[in-house]
Design goal:
Elements (H helix, E strand, L loop, with lengths): L2 E5 L6 E8 L14 E5 L2 E6 L7 E6 L6 E5 L4 E9 L4 H4 L2 E6 L2 E5 L4 H7 L13 E12 L2 E9 L9 E7 L5 E3 L10 H4 L2 E11 L5 E11 L8 E8 L6 E8 L10 E9 L4 E10 L2 E9 L5 E9 L2 H5 L4 E10 L2 E9 L12 E9 L2 E4 L5 E2 L7 E8 L2 E7 L13 E2 L6 E5 L5 E5 L7 E4 L1 E4 L2 E3 L6 E8 L4 E6 L4 E7 L2 E5 L18 E7 L2 E6 L4 E6 L6 E7 L5 E10 L6
Parallel strand pairs: 10-29
Antiparallel strand pairs: 1-6, 2-5, 2-7, 3-4, 3-6, 7-8, 8-9, 10-11, 11-12, 12-13, 14-15, 15-16, 16-17, 18-19, 19-20, 20-21, 22-23, 23-24, 24-25, 24-26, 27-28, 28-30, 30-31, 32-43, 33-34, 34-42, 35-39, 35-43, 36-37, 36-42, 37-38, 39-40, 40-41
């Protein structure tokens, strides 16, 4: 061992980490001795004698009152995610992230997170992102005992997609989050198998008795990302502290006739009218993207009931492989179906993987849309894998801010963010609306100053909000960065359009037609979220070329009559 350090930890502290043998070393070089050890006084209480060449999960719980000494061979071990926590108070204190480098141990408890989050100039400050590594879809969203729980797709060993786990965080207000231990692991160590798969997307379910469980898709070890894999559905009963699965059982293996390998992302609810459980799943039927409906008397034994929705042939012809991340929920006196068509490219604009909704009724296990037309939920497309949940009499949604069109530059310790929390509603025409949850306004720091009318000066690195009302047709909004890059939002030919510095013109990000009456824009270190006409029209883009905003300019036309204009600078949720 070439490095050691004493640790001041309490009895009951648990360590969790992922490690492998450094690629430049061989097993023979370190045979006969440990590469990682924990000692209580002089007694070894935990050690790793040898490491595999692939990442492996390790855990140790300290059950004595003696102080610990950590020893490691930095030439032999590569650690990715490494943390410890006290289960008795982790919900309040969070995990303490650890880094071993250069013979030193750096600990980052909750009070050190603000400096970590604000040190990355490209990391958004209003939105959730993982401490490090990769995240994608939100999962298991729920409100339990006065706290919001966020679980999410997570690859703990690098900032790239890989074997899926579920990360976990909690919040009192939907903005300030506390990191908890990784909640769910793949059924097998997929790194050791050279395979992909793992704990894919799912949702939380509160039964008629008030008990919480989670349903999710496990993709079994897969060697092709696009075909011939197997996806099964599982149910988790969490521990009473919600830190880990207490029980995990297989509930559904095969899809109905006509379905194939895409069979995923369960959303479960209890139908009080019919006295039974219901589940929707994303799939394809004979190649057409589809949403499947299942029923159960006990939440464990599920039977196929019907195809709740089947997409028109247009979507299959333009690349749509299946529906994924379907969401189905009651809202006011209607039901809403939300779904993404993975692989779809809209021929008119070139946009990928769009998200759609339909509003209708749900009776006798049949969904009857009010109109056959799908409502486009976000014209910018970087709002994907949306999941909603019920809390405090509101339907609240998050989505993943990513759509594979542009990749984050290499070198960052993390990849992936979530949207602002959005409150869902229906307008007078029974269209789904999405508006930012009002608690974000408590994070306003100050009003932006104007160098000239409509020319706002922004503080670099700070999130901003712009809100406009009036007759806004043909307005143009330009955001300028410190390096000369810019983004533009414009009402052109009756549609909202957005372009960022990465755009080369092949893809047109435009809304459905609208008379623009109000608009709210949030910009946060490269994330644009746009809400127009009281949330009927939304657009989200993620740019990595303009993350520092220095100025925001309004360029009205002769058709524009601005009746209200306000702009604010925001605090960071990570510690301002």
């Amino acid at each position: 061992m070439n490095s050691s350090l004493k640790l001041d930890v309490r009895r009951g502290t648990r360590f969790e980490f992922w490690a492998r043998r450094k690629p430049a070393t061989s097993e023979e070089e370190h045979a006969g001795g440990e590469v990682f050890a924990l000692r209580a006084d002089e007694r070894i209480v935990y050690r790793i004698a040898a490491l595999p060449p692939y990442f492996q999960f390790y855990a140790y719980t300290h059950h004595t009152n003696e102080p610990l000494t950590l020893e490691w061979d930095e030439n032999a071990i590569e650690l990715s995610l490494f943390y410890h926590f006290d289960p008795a108070n982790v919900v309040e204190e969070g995990v303490t992230f650890l880094e071993l480098r250069g013979g030193r141990l750096t600990a980052r408890p909750k009070e050190a997170w603000p400096a970590w989050y604000q040190s990355d100039p490209d990391r958004p400050q209003l939105r959730f992102s993982p401490f490090q590594a990769w995240m994608n879809d939100p999962n298991g969203l729920c409100f339990v005992n006065g706290r919001y729980h966020l679980l999410y797709q997570f690859h703990p060993v690098e900032a790239e997609w890989g074997p899926m786990h579920w990360g976990h965080a909690v919040s009192d207000d939907l903005y300030r989050w506390t990191h908890l231990p990784v909640f769910l692991h793949p059924e097998q160590n997929l790194w050791s198998l050279g395979a992909t798969g793992g704990a894919f997307s799912g949702s939380a379910f509160v039964g008629p008795d008030g008990d919480l469980s989670f349903y999710y898709t496990e993709r079994l070890p897969a060697y092709d990302l696009f075909k011939d894999y197997k996806e099964v559905q599982k149910q988790i009963v969490p521990s009473t502290d919600l830190l880990r699965p207490e029980a995990n059982r297989l509930v559904l293996v095969d899809g109905p006739p006509g379905s194939a390998h895409d069979f995923r992302d369960p959303k479960v609810w209890y139908d009080a009218t019919r006295g039974g459980y219901r589940m929707v799943l994303g799939a394809a039927i004979d190649g057409d993207p589809a949403v499947l409906l299942y029923g159960s008397k006990d939440g464990a034994d599920w039977k196929f009931l019907s195809v709740l929705y089947r997409a028109p042939e247009h979507f299959r012809r333009h690349g749509a492989r299946c529906v994924e991340c379907p969401d189905f929920f009651g809202l006011e006196d209607r039901f809403v179906l939300v779904m993404g068509f993975v692989g779809y490219t809209e021929p008119e604009t070139g946009r990928h993987n769009l998200l759609y909704a339909q509003v209708g009724t749900f009776e006798d296990d049949r969904f009857l849309p009010l109109t056959p037309t799908l409502q486009e939920l976000d014209f910018g497309t970087d709002f994907y894998a949306m999941q909603s949940f019920r809390a405090k009499e509101r339907q609240i949604a998050f989505a993943w801010l990513f759509n594979w069109e542009f990749r984050k530059p290499a070198g960052s310790p993390y990849s992936g963010e979530l949207s602002l929390p959005r409150v869902l509603g229906l307008d007078a025409q029974l269209r789904l609306t999405m508006l930012p949850e009002e608690g974000c306004r408590a994070l306003r720091s100050r009003a932006l100053t104007q160098a000239a009318p409509g020319h706002f000066i922004c503080e670099p690195g700070k999130p901003i909000e712009l809100s406009l009302g009036g007759a806004l047709n043909e307005i143009r909004i330009v955001g300028r960065g410190g390096d000369g890059e810019s983004f533009t939002i414009a009402h052109v030919l009756g549609r909202l359009q957005v372009s960022v510095a990465e755009d080369a013109g092949e893809i047109e990000y435009r809304s459905t037609p609208l008379e623009l009456k109000n608009l709210t824009l949030f910009f946060d270190r490269g994330v644009l979220e746009i809400f127009a006409n009281d949330g009927v029209i939304c657009g989200t883009r993620r740019t990595y070329k303009i993350t520092t905003l220095t100025a925001l300019e309004l360029v009205p036309s002769k058709a524009t009559d601005i009746e209200f204009c306000g702009a604010w600078c925001y605090l960071s949720v990570w510690g301002d």
